[in-house]
Design a protein that fits this description.
- The complex is a heterodimer.
- By secondary structure, chain A is mostly helical.
- Chain A has two domains: 94 residues, no CATH class; 57 residues, no CATH class.
- Chain A is 76% helix and 0% strand.
- The longest helix of chain A is centred in the middle third of the chain and has 44 residues.
- Chain A is flat and about 50 Å long.
- In chain A, 42% of the residues are buried.
- In chain B, helix 1 packs parallel to helix 4.
- Chain B has one domain.
- The longest helix of chain B is centred in the middle third of the chain and has 39 residues.
- Classes of the chains: A mainly alpha, B mainly alpha.
- Chains A and B meet through helix 3, helix 4, helix 5, helix 6 and helix 7 of A and helix 1, helix 2, helix 3, helix 4 and helix 5 of B.
Chain lengths: 197, 181
């Protein structure tokens, strides 16, 4: 199938599993990695337990999964599937990651329809929504602390928040303008390029 | 009728998928605006209910798309919404993964990695504001929000356990008549 393109060879030879093996392992990850343990479990299954991906490739995949749009665990699964078995591998890995979670959330959706007549349902969900917003705020605060201390970086973050959150402008044009603007700021403030000059 | 809704689901979710830098949490504000205000498929409180379910469920936050699809167009709607939210971003990753990995560390790559942060931060806080604005605001819900934010920011407490504790507490409050919407 696909030739490995990694420059450095890992400690042990990389093996190529069958598509069925790949499906079984990613279904296992999809079913049992709930609660934020996705990344360690994927590492265990594709680097440690099975020699399918090199450590270096796994780390590169993790970086790409974060940078590109889409849900991180799904992106990482796609990347690993692609490395291991090409396009079919990518499709199988994504399907196996999303499928189990989809079935569970649909079961919850059915339950919600049945229980929607009870006022308690909406009160409990209001509480859970508060916890969900709390998670978003905590993540947002942590990411904010990691940002560059530059006024233009702050300006971009605040402008995006005001445009989408307060003026309710569609995210599509806002992000299409904000990403290149932010890229320009990041390019101009790149430390290594400055050092070279 | 249903066909129009299926097309609508694709029109709403596919562009968000391509721009979901920062994952599913980053697109919540726009999803709510599109689904509640622009298309009128759900009310604000209904959207908040689905947001809550998606955060209590395992898996990526973007699976809220499947719940929305199910509410407005049944099981077919949930499948269409799910494909619309995962396929476009997957196609982008599929075509960029090799380039990104085989390209040596460059100024462009470094800059791109740093460029996403401020945009993601703006979108995350916008999403939080959108949900807060259609939440029933009383001392209980405010206290809950403050406590949850504090716990998740300052400790490594599992968000899923926290959701379980909050749900149980709110159920007890509701059944004992102390809290309602």
């Amino acid at each position: 199938m696909k030739k490995k393109e990694g420059a450095s060879l890992p400690d042990r030879p990389i093996e190529t599993p069958s598509l069925v093996q790949l499906l079984v392992v990613f279904l296992k990850i999809g079913f049992f990695s709930f609660g934020g343990g996705t990344r360690p479990m994927m590492h265990r299954e594709t680097v440690e337990n099975h020699p399918w991906v090199s450590e270096k490739d796994f780390l590169a995949g993790f970086a790409i999964a974060q940078v590109m749009p889409g849900a991180n665990p799904v992106n990482l699964a796609l990347y690993l599937g692609l490395r291991i078995r090409g396009a079919m591998g990518a499709a199988i890995a994504v399907f196996a990651m999303v499928g189990p979670a989809f079935l569970i959330i649909m079961a919850m959706g059915f339950a919600y329809r049945e229980l929607t007549g009870f006022p308690a349902t909406h009160f409990v969900l209001a509480g859970v929504a508060g916890a969900g917003v709390g998670a978003t705020l905590a993540t947002g605060a942590k990411v904010t602390l990691g940002l560059d201390r530059h006024w233009m970086t702050a300006l971009i973050a605040i402008t995006v928040f005001v445009a989408v959150g307060i003026f309710r402008i569609s995210m599509v044009p806002v992000v299409i303008i904000a990403i290149p603007a932010s890229l320009m700021v990041a390019w101009m403030t790149d430390k290594e390029a400055r050092r070279d000059r | 009728m249903t066909d129009n809704r299926l097309v609508g689901l694709i029109l709403v979710f596919a562009p968000l998928s391509m721009l979901s830098f920062g994952g599913g949490q980053a697109v919540v504000a726009d999803m709510q605006y599109q689904v509640v205000t622009v298309w009128g498929w759900l009310t604000g409180p209904q959207f908040n209910d689905l947001f809550a379910i998606s955060r209590a469920a395992p898996g990526p936050a973007s699976l809220i798309a499947a719940l929305i699809g199910y509410q407005i167009a049944g099981v077919i709607g949930s499948i269409v919404a799910c494909i619309a939210i995962f396929l476009p971003s997957s196609i982008i990753l599929y075509f960029t993964a090799n380039w990104w990995q085989n390209h040596p560390d460059s100024r462009l790559k470094r800059s791109f990695e740093r460029a996403l942060g401020p945009v993601a931060v703006g979108l995350l806080f916008a999403g939080a504001l959108a949900i807060i604005q259609s939440m029933p605001m009383n001392p209980i819900t405010w206290l809950n929000l403050a406590l949850c934010t504090g716990v998740l920011y300052f400790t490594k407490f599992s968000p899923y356990k926290l959701v379980g504790i909050v749900a149980a507490s709110f159920l007890v409050l509701s059944l004992s008549g102390l809290g309602s919407i």
